[in-house]
Amino acid sequence: MSLLHEKHEKFFNRCLIALPAQAASEDSNKLAIIYFSLHGLQLLNKFNFTQQELKYHEKFIWDSFFIERNEYVTFRSTMYFQESGELFDSGDLSACLFALYSLMILKSDFKRLNWQKLFNFLVKCQIKQGSNKGGFLQTSNETDLESDFAQADIRQCYMALVIRQLLLDKTELKSDIDKNSLTDFILKRLNHNGGFGSQVFDEPHLGYTFCAIASLKLLGFPVDNLEQTKNWLVHRQVSYPEVLYPVMKDYAFHRNIDTGGFNGRENKLSDTCYSWWCSGSLYLLNQDNLKLINVELAEEFLLEKTQNTIMGGFSSVPDGTPDPMHTYLALASLSLWNCEKYKLDEIDALFTISKRLRHYRAERDSVVISY
Length: 371
Description:
Blueprint: H1 5-17, H2 30-43, H3 51-65, E1 66-68, E2 73-75, H4 93-105, H5 115-125, H6 154-170, H7 179-187, H8 206-218, H9 227-234, H10 244-247, H11 272-285, H12 295-306, H13 324-338, E3 347-348, E4 353-354, H14 355-364
Helix pairs in contact: 1-2, 2-4, 2-13, 4-6, 5-6, 6-8, 8-11, 11-13
């Protein structure tokens, strides 16, 4: 089956205009939905907004999500926090990154953003002491320890480092985050089997593993030495022998329909998003590692089992409802495997955005990319 470009274009555009009632609970993820939709159109080479539309979307983000305090600036996850007072309207890292990525593609001049104050927000999110020293919280931290509102998380570390890199593209930092403690924080979550977990001794998870590898790469750590991690990643692709299915037909975790896909943990089902978290992780370790997976089977899982041929978009699992995140990560996977074959913009695996857009913004801002 081919990639349905026009249906996916319509799907992303619908997501930018209106969502069904069951998506109401995702309001706090609105900036993520905007990011996946805008950058999904970019990957499809269907980013065709007029100047007026670009300005409209840009103004909506600045007016609804931007937070400016005396000491720092950032972005809130939902516009309704504006009414809750400063204690609960402190912004968070994920909203900040999704807003910055969205404003980048909307060609914002960022004149409203004080980059040094944005760096101040990053510093406030890093834990300064205790067992999780070096890690990042999702929201600003006034105590230097764990917060009642958040928990140290490798995903937040990755987003903080990407924001830091965007800052380096814009300006020279007078100080920096604690990179040594952050590296230690991440490496402590490396499991004996090669994957990374959310907390020390936790079961490894593919999403956290991608964030860990990308973070270590941004920190200059030699990730190509993580041989055990490479081995764990390769075994995330589901490909059981045909003879197994008739014998274990009552075992729910061996389903023929999952063949070719990737699971996030041992003995779990395939999910569209793990195609990206696994492929991207292997690629970041070494570009030649993509030869270690069966790309033909992986493409078949996405195009024939999770691609929605009626509405457009990709679902997380076969016969599921498509959503912007899984659609974007499916396109990112296909781009990484063969962008020319699928007529997609080339993905930057480290930043999870179009390579063309990433390089254009960095060159335009006249600062050398350093990672």
